[in-house]
Amino acid sequence: MIDVLAVACIFVIGFCVLMYVLLDGFDLGIGILFPFFPGRHARDIMVSTVLPVWDGNQTWLVLGGAFLYGAFPQAFSLLLPALYMPIFVMVMSLLFRGITFEFRLKAKKSLPWWDALFCVSSTLVCFCQGLVLGTFVKGFQLGSEPNTLSYELFTPFNISCGFALLFGYALLGATWIIGKTTGELQARMYHAAKICLLVVTLFLMIISLWTPFVDDSIRAIWFNPNYIYKLAMLPLVTGLMILYFGYALYKRAEYILFWLAIGIFVCAYLGFGISTFPYLIPHVLTIWQVVAPESTVLFMLFGALLLLPMLVGYTSYSYYVFRGKVTETIGY
Fold first, then answer.
1. Contact, 42 vs 33, CB < 8 A?
2. Considering the domain boundaries, does residue 86 fall inside one?
């Protein structure tokens, strides 16, 4: 029973992380794109497209972290100290980015400083997430001290993951703005989306070929003769979506581009899950080795059954209310 509950918990955490990556990814992408779109009006419109919904996006990160703490406390106690530096930088950057939302639309003389802070903080959040992502793929080792983990953060693979995520979030941001704006800003975003798609495609190819050689266990998964043809469907579907994305860009489609970007992210996320499952701390502890007692897990899953529909409903409703084009600057 506890084995099934552990899998259910990891799916809840995985869903929360995916929702955060998709929803917070495009407003982080807007900050990453800021240096390439000078001028107050264009930047004000870019921020205005996410101003009504950005703060709710981070609820998914909080829920995923809380669920990890409750359902897998041992893993939480090992991962948090080990990843303290990138997580601290990410949280502080999220804090400062939130401040810019509150102040930049009111600023005059200090506006360039708020814009720079918005861009730098968004970039740092994204790059730290990419470093952590690469670390999870490469895996951890037990440290020399009891209850500690050892790993390398700034490796070529991790840095590649960081830059890949930067362009991936920028792609989400560009396609979001394409669907929310018109005129010159939208036309320039088509060009930005084209560049981001090319770079993301290149990074996907490099990291996909690189990942099986990062660890023997990952290579054994992807090149298992019993599953290789089924697993090959994932890169095939990803490639078809990228091709259709390019066609949609050529046709100047608006709304489908954002959903195609989401689809590419989902495929990459599934590839990450296949490479790391069933480890919660790759390649040290599996989910079944660190799961909490059955009563605690049941309590957490009961809470998830209550909270997840509410969060999905609230998120869907907020995006529905604030649907449509943004043609002028808005504020609180």
1. no
2. yes
State how far the Cα of 98 lies from the Cα of 322, in Å rounded to an integer. 20
Q: Does some domain include residue 276?
A: yes
Domain that holds residue 203: 2-321
Helix (H) or strand (E) segment spanning residue 286? strand 285-286
How many structural domains is the chain composed of? Answer: 1
- Would residue 133 count as lying in a domain? yes
Angle, in degrees to the nearest 10, between helices 233-250 and 255-276: 160
What pLDDT score does 292 carry?
Answer: 85
CA angle, corner 97, sides to 12 and 78, nearest 5?
45
155, 12 Cβ separation under 8 angstroms: no
**Which of 117, 124, 118, 31 lies closest to 86, judged by CA?**
124
Query: Rounded to the nearest 5 degrees, what angle is found at the Cα of 36, between the Cα atoms of 35 and 40?
Result: 70
The per-residue pLDDT for 125 is: 94
Pairing state of beta strands 279-281 and 285-286? antiparallel
Query: Is 327 a member of any domain?
Result: no
pTM here is 0.93
Q: Residue 81 contacts by C-beta under 8 Å, 6 or more apart in sequence?
A: 148, 149
Mean pLDDT by 10 residues, the chain (332 residues): 82 91 90 87 87 83 87 87 89 89 80 90 93 87 74 88 94 93 90 94 92 83 83 90 93 90 93 86 84 87 89 89 80 60
